Amino acid sequence: MSTIEATSRAGDALTPGELLEMLYYMRLQRAIEDRAIKLYYQGRIPGAYFTGWGHEAIAVGATYALGPADLLAPMHRDLAAYLMRGIPARRVFAQFLDREGGLTRGRDGNIHMGDPRLGILPFISHMAASVPVAAGMALACRQRGQARVVLTFFGDGATSTGAWHEGVNFAAVLRLPVVLVLENNQYAYSTPLDRQTAARALVDKAPGYGIPGVAVDGNDVLAVYAAARAAVARARDGGGPTLIECRTMRMRGHSEADHFAYVPRELLAAWAARDPIALFERRLREEGQLTAEADRAMQGRIAQEVEEALAWAEASPEPAPASVAEGVYAASDGR
Amino acid sequence: MSTIEATSRAGDALTPGELLEMLYYMRLQRAIEDRAIKLYYQGRIPGAYFTGWGHEAIAVGATYALGPADLLAPMHRDLAAYLMRGIPARRVFAQFLDREGGLTRGRDGNIHMGDPRLGILPFISHMAASVPVAAGMALACRQRGQARVVLTFFGDGATSTGAWHEGVNFAAVLRLPVVLVLENNQYAYSTPLDRQTAARALVDKAPGYGIPGVAVDGNDVLAVYAAARAAVARARDGGGPTLIECRTMRMRGHSEADHFAYVPRELLAAWAARDPIALFERRLREEGQLTAEADRAMQGRIAQEVEEALAWAEASPEPAPASVAEGVYAASDGR
Amino acid sequence: MTYLEAIREALRSEMRRDPRVFVLGEDIGVHGGAFGITKGFLDEFGPWRVIDAPLSEAANVGAGIGAAVMGMRPVVELQFADFVTDAFTQVVNMAATFHWRTGCPLPLVLRMPYGGDVKGGPFHSQCKEAWFVHTPGLKVVAPATAGDAKGLLLAAIRDPNPVLYFEHKHLYRYRREEVPDGEHVTPIGRAHVAREGTALSVISYGWMLHKCLAAADAAARDGIAAEVLDLRSLLPLDRDAILGTVRKTGKALIVHEATRTAGVGAEVAALIAEEAFESLDGPVVRLASEDTPVPHSPVLEAAFQPQVEEIAGAIRALAAY
Amino acid sequence: MTYLEAIREALRSEMRRDPRVFVLGEDIGVHGGAFGITKGFLDEFGPWRVIDAPLSEAANVGAGIGAAVMGMRPVVELQFADFVTDAFTQVVNMAATFHWRTGCPLPLVLRMPYGGDVKGGPFHSQCKEAWFVHTPGLKVVAPATAGDAKGLLLAAIRDPNPVLYFEHKHLYRYRREEVPDGEHVTPIGRAHVAREGTALSVISYGWMLHKCLAAADAAARDGIAAEVLDLRSLLPLDRDAILGTVRKTGKALIVHEATRTAGVGAEVAALIAEEAFESLDGPVVRLASEDTPVPHSPVLEAAFQPQVEEIAGAIRALAAY
Lengths: 335, 335, 321, 321
Ligand SMILES: Cc1ncc(C[n+]2csc(CCOP(=O)(O)OP(=O)(O)O)c2C)c(N)n1
Ligand SMILES: Cc1ncc(C[n+]2csc(CCOP(=O)(O)OP(=O)(O)O)c2C)c(N)n1
Ligand SMILES: [Mg+2]
Ligand SMILES: [Mg+2]
Hints:
By secondary structure, chain A is an alpha/beta fold. Helix content of chain A is 41%, strand content 10%.
């Protein structure tokens, strides 16, 4: 059986600067979301608002394993991944505020965004719909002989969909360079894992597709990174997809409108003690990589970035109503 | 890992009469299809014609494990299963000929037939679309506290569909009384198994759903029966679904219009030497259960049944053109 | 009560009345559904009649079909109607053709929370009822009022065919009306004259009906008496009611929230142009949402959807024709 | 050459011309496709441009989308158009909205072998183009002749948007015509007057176009000069051509193989009733298949589909109106 538990730590392979960069992105995600939650409760974010509270180690650890030309197909709790691959915080806030400066220019909302020019497939609502598309992006790389890898994220709930199954199978059969990162946060909206699957573990699905599967602590950014780095290397070498099950907990409601009374509070408390950012901070402090001074500097930088980004977004205009019928069809392929 | 290779033979538990009944249905399927192939080449069967040549042990072995009140959701190579559950041969021929006497009264064609009144869900073209429906039939039994089991068949190709994945998962999560019989005949139309899945074996999918999986020789009717009997008992006892992978070979074209040049002839020859009917006949003869006299009588009975059935079907009228717009909506639920 | 409460009460009363009725969907049990419609149901009816399903629309709809085949009366909730695209084969191929293939009933209801003005964007706001109106074997209803929300849900549950029940999310809490107690069944296939008039016929359904009524009020202040027809059922359409109102007024304005091209309005207009041609005193006009995905930005969505002003303008223009 | 050969030649020439073009689908490589359209392609272009895919329509269409995102020009073959229901989310949600959400092109072609008179029954004969015509962001074409089969496929492959190319299975071998060599591109969105006339306009597409032409011949023998318009593109429709012919003749008969209610004919009729109302000298008449699934029995299917006689009858009746 190809499923193994990944316990190795890859921290050794990373420079102190890289480790701090990982922490920076984890904190940046948290800070942006923290700010956005306030905006949401002020009624300034139209529609639903989703956070990745508790998922930061997954977003950062997995994405950090990508090379510069690699591709990303994220989901709705991976804000750091978008940021790491080149989407500026100001455009994220503009997206949340439905402004012209948002990635979709007000066409789609919240984290339904991306930028194909940066190699980031925008997420749509239909769970796991990105998975076959990610396979197709990898196919194009393979067809062109490019050694690029596509990393895609999805939730435990998403694994129940036909799209997920078909996409994973397609990638496996064609041995495409895809890395499949499962963010198992124990719930899909109100549905607990045991109502989503009867499998002993979701990673047990891997052998059914003939691909390696590995389960990691999703709150340990270096464990996620190690697993992703191995999977990216395997994919790049023609070894095909790997399923990485990252185990974590969704620390807030499904969206900010959800009071999630269905989650036992003890469960939340247990996971709160293992907050991925706090865990990583402690480690970096213990190992002397995060000095008090560096810490303060980073916090200051983030606070400033967030406020600047938000200010930019707020200055971005609302989309022009007269433009409503535009942009449905491309006039040329621009190539 | 829950996957085991079933090698046990259940022949001992069956009476000689039962063994002969199994042979009878295998032969009846072959005889009807043999006759239908001739009709097809005479241009008398409208549309495509599909046979289950090579699949007879699966259809009969699995279906024989059902109790009288159990339910069936077959596929397109299981003619014997339909016959065993109460559909008369004459209506099968009338179905093939698109006559009023066919199960769908000319509305649908070839083996797209069934009869909900007999507990047989009619198959539609979309591969694996029956799987979630079979789960729902089992759900209704469970809701009513009936100890009934639903057995469903599907192909290796069908396992790649989202419908299959979602249906199996649904049944597994709710521990529904479903028996999942995979007719792995190495091909899906022209697509060989290794282009359908990268799994070492399709039965390796079972743990991903948290259900037991078992692989059997699909040309050995008693091996199929033994596995199905165990799975039916487990389902009836509240143990939930079982995946049974029956390994066989599609011995003719995908449909009769297909010359299947894509199948290596040596592969066909190897499997031809293991024809499920011939294997079972040999065994029954060796064990003295099929005497020359009983054999002749059975062959005679079948030949006569086939000709009578065909004559009945040919006498059945074409559907009335004036009825074309009728029957789209039910006027009442008849309950 | 609100439109939402009317749905809840209808569902609950049918489940009390008929043990074959059950609900199935994502997050409908413990949580009571994304909109809280089935709140309290799990406690009252237990886990085999209030089924929390995995995230798998094809399985969930398929399971509903299977249970209906066995004589149950499933009501499957799609969390948002937009997600029905994941279950399309089950709806349009398996369910729609079932009776025609077998002669047996298929008493299935799909609850389809649909429509915009909920800041939902392109994947939580769509109005795709026309897809199903083009699918023989299905029935399609779309209540605009709390009363019809109840009456059509009772009718849908009791119907021996698969019925897609399009419940408008914006109306959930926006509409609050008196709803008749007890056996209040709105027959499927019957439209309703929501406002009598003589100058022209405004034909609509769902959330837009209320905008049409407001626009008709505005036009009335200019002395234009518009008749407003609430279709309620989209498949089958109430041909007699549609042709009747147009024969009476001689003019038709059709308004819907679905995008314009090949929407339900096209069928209504075509019906009128063919069967009421001799009564027509003016072009058959359609007002509908722009032919784009549904924009998330409220500013854009307001421009996307027909608005009262625009409808009133179209009423005046057509009346003056 | 035949309609089928025209498709093959167009596909092959585009693959030779542009290395970004590739084909993907079930059984299209080693076997050359269920209809043999890609026979020989695997040998010529190799396994990374002629991709035998697993039995998974959502994955196959999704993979096409992903490759298009990366700048390839995938042509995904659905084995039968009926199976697109398994890929619905990818088509109508992922692909249709992609450009609108991102500003980037999505040059994807879905080959949709569709239509009846192939003894295929309810799941191998459907004409569901209207579903996609009601989906902004897609383009939909449906050639009726070998020439247009080539010309529209070239246009579809070169279009920067997702195009659903409805190729009629009955026409594969039924139609044999001269097809211009080389760069013969039929612009998307342009209808074609297949027969000039003055008495009325018959508007059709696909297989029914040929029945309409035969019916027009029959009517001509009675002195009725019907104009026949071949729509060719269904989204966008050629509004000018439709309104132009109706303004010229004053009468419209719309004929299609898809079932009647909410079919493409409804949109065409609605367009005429709104924009050419003043030119109309008679009702806008639709002839279409019965509102039922497609029957398998040839006897029933003949009764289901519009036939030449019926069309000719409708032409005479409308001409006499
Ligand atoms: C196909 C589909 N069905 C239903 C929904 C509604 N929905 C949105 S998120 C969600 C739960 C997703 O769970 P999971 O995949 O575990 O991701 P998580 O939100 O837990 O990170 C549901 C049911 C959807 N978006 N898509
Ligand atoms: C969803 C879907 N896609 C494509 C087809 C066309 N098709 C019909 S049978 C078949 C192969 C089925 O293979 P398998 O499931 O292995 O069954 P087998 O015919 O080999 O017994 C295909 C591709 C279909 N019927 N349904
Ligand atoms: Mg989750
Ligand atoms: Mg097979």
